[in-house]
Amino acid sequence: MLAALLPILLVAGCATAPGQSTAPTVPSARYVALGSSFAAGPGVTVSADNPATRCTRSKDNYAHQLARLRQLDLVDVSCGGATTAHLLGPWKELAPQLDALTPDTALVTITIGGNDVSYVGYLFVESCKGAEDRPALAKAFAMCKAMTARQPSFPAPAVPTDADWSKLAADLDRIAAEARRRAPQARIVFVDYVTLLPSGAPCPQVPLSGQALATAQATADRLARLTASVAKHNGADVLRASTLSRGHDACAAQPWSNGFVARPGVDPFTPYHPNLAGMTAIATALDRMLGR
């Protein structure tokens, strides 16, 4: 579980670069969804896979919702815990996600990069520190202890270095180029990560110190900028989920993501991940971006 964790309408960067398809996505067109848990949707309603797999794909993640809206033939190979390496190469029993692309693919969405820079992993570890010795967060801290007991040797995520960011940029470029090579007629859309954290002080759902909050926010902001830059450089679109979800962070009155601590009555629940409302907002924005 810890390994997996480590792992609408404002659309920026929609101008079409040379080589990007602008054709409407017609019913029955092949749509391939790539990415990490922020695409897969762990804890969002029910599993899309029967039997359920370790990838924790939801039947109501943004790809499945978009496919239903537009009657697309969806191939969802997103997987919780995935990094860029798992799009480019195999991951245990899983083939490289890019292998799902074919020359007749009409649409590709990509949400990846957060696990490469330990975004959610850092949030989880720092939130465990914040939950310690706080009676109101006893249940959350018990989860921290149980997970640490199962994986005592798992290293605490470090703040990403410049080398980490350079490698991520190179990997994202490789993914975009390979997607274009394998699916030359496809419209390629990078979907960045929804905003998890408040712009002001943390709330009970986000038990972070001020320093940890600032550090995690800096990582989120840099990841969003990098995703947009790679998309533009490679003639792809970008849906800025990070922008359209501002004001809907885990502390907001109408959150599009979960914090570390569940709100009353929220079940199922996956800490620091998009919820159903967030997935629906992204699907709606993608539908509008694609046009008719």
From TrEMBL:
Residues 1-17 form the signal peptide. Residues 33-280 form the SGNH hydrolase-type esterase domain. InterPro entries: SEST-like, SGNH_hydro, SGNH_hydro_sf. Coiled coil: none annotated. It comes from the Bacteria. CDD domains: SEST_like (cd01823). Keywords: Signal. This is SGNH hydrolase-type esterase domain-containing protein. It comes from Sphingomonas bisphenolicum.
